[in-house]
């Protein structure tokens, strides 16, 4: 006889479902990739990305569209960070997405060393319009690399009796995969970032960097990440391979079309093929292939 959860167990379930709904609404590709994760890690990764998405929306448009100014958006971001850290300690939040993330953070040992840089990068979006090499690297570390490191904490610790730290090779791979993801998205959103948000993350508009050199860096990061994927726990590899291959395909399409008229995407039929490759245990695709 099955028993429906009640009390805090029911609240935990509702929080996890709320996080999954956020991800499904914002990214069909990511939602598909998380389904390839084993059940041990799947919910935790969704919980991480839901919080990341909410924070990103505070600084990337919806809050401003709702009528908030930059100061008010910054206050909302500060409050979200404070609530996140408090929820980890007190084991409860009235914000379902925060509650879900806090449970993941406790189980998988995600602390301020990863959370604080993420919110610092989000805060940068409210104050910095043009990035040089140093600020780009700092921004990418906080906005993307630490998210990869949070997921790595899930991969090695979820469901385990005692926490452990990932190897230096896996740490480097997670950081480089996150950096590649972020730079690909910068290239995909180049016009929107410059014309709508007034931001220059890559220095292309100023002539400081050339698009081909950035794509070379992306492909090098993807190749380095691919080399360590076999070291991941078996129940996480397929999802990471699928995500890697999706961004390798985006990089290939960005290189093939230097002046795309619309945001570069991977057609659904191609996505399905990439996921099928990951499902049967194929190695990550070579970058540029």
Q: What's the N-to-C terminus distance?
A: 52 Å
User: Pairing-aware structural class of the strands and helices?
Assistant: mainly alpha
Counting DSSP H or I runs of 4 or more residues, the number of helices is 13
Helix and strand succession? Answer: HHHHHHHHHHHHH
Compute the CA-based radius of gyration.
19 Å
Let me know the largest β-sheet: none
Helix share, percent: over 70%
Uncertain spans: none
Instruction: Please tell me the overall pLDDT.
Output: 92
**Residues in β-strands, percent:** under 5%
What general form does the structure show? globular
The total count of strands amounts to: 0
Textual characterization of the structure:
With 289 residues, this protein is mostly helical. It contains 13 helices and no strands. It has helices at residues 7-26, 28-34, 39-59, 62-65, 70-90, 96-108, 112-124, 133-157, 168-188, 190-195, 211-228, 234-256, 268-279. The radius of gyration is 19 Å and the shape is globular. The termini are far apart.
């Amino acid at each position: 006889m099955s028993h429906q959860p009640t009390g805090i167990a029911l609240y935990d379930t509702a929080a996890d479902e709320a996080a999954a709904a956020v991800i499904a609404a914002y990214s069909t590709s990511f939602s598909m990739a998380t389904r390839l994760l084993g059940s041990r890690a799947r919910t935790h990764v969704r919980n991480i990305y839901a919080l990341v998405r909410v924070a990103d929306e505070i600084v990337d448009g919806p809050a401003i569209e709702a009528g908030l100014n930059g100061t008010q958006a910054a206050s909302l971001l500060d409050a979200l960070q404070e609530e996140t850290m408090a929820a980890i300690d007190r084991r409860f939040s009235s914000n379902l997405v925060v509650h879900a993330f806090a449970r993941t953070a406790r189980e998988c040992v995600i602390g301020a060393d990863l959370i604080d840089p993420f919110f610092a990068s989000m805060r940068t979006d409210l104050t910095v319009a043009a990035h040089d090499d140093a600020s780009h690297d700092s921004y990418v570390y906080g906005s993307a690399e630490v998210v990869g490191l949070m997921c790595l904490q899930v991969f090695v610790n979820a469901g385990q009796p005692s926490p452990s730290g990932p190897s230096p090779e896996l740490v480097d791979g997670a950081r480089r995969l996150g950096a590649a993801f972020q730079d690909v998205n910068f290239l995909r959103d180049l016009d929107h970032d410059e014309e709508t948000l007034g931001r220059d993350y890559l220095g292309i508009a100023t002539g400081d960097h050339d698009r081909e050199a950035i794509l070379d860096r992306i492909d090098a990061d993807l190749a380095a990440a691919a080399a360590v994927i076999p070291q991941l726990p078996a129940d996480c590899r397929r999802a990471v391979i699928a995500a890697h291959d999706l961004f390798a395909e985006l990089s290939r399409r960005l290189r093939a079309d230097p002046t795309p008229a619309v945001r570069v995407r991977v057609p659904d039929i191609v996505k399905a093929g990439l996921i099928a490759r990951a499902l049967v245990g194929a190695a990550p695709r070579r970058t540029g292939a």
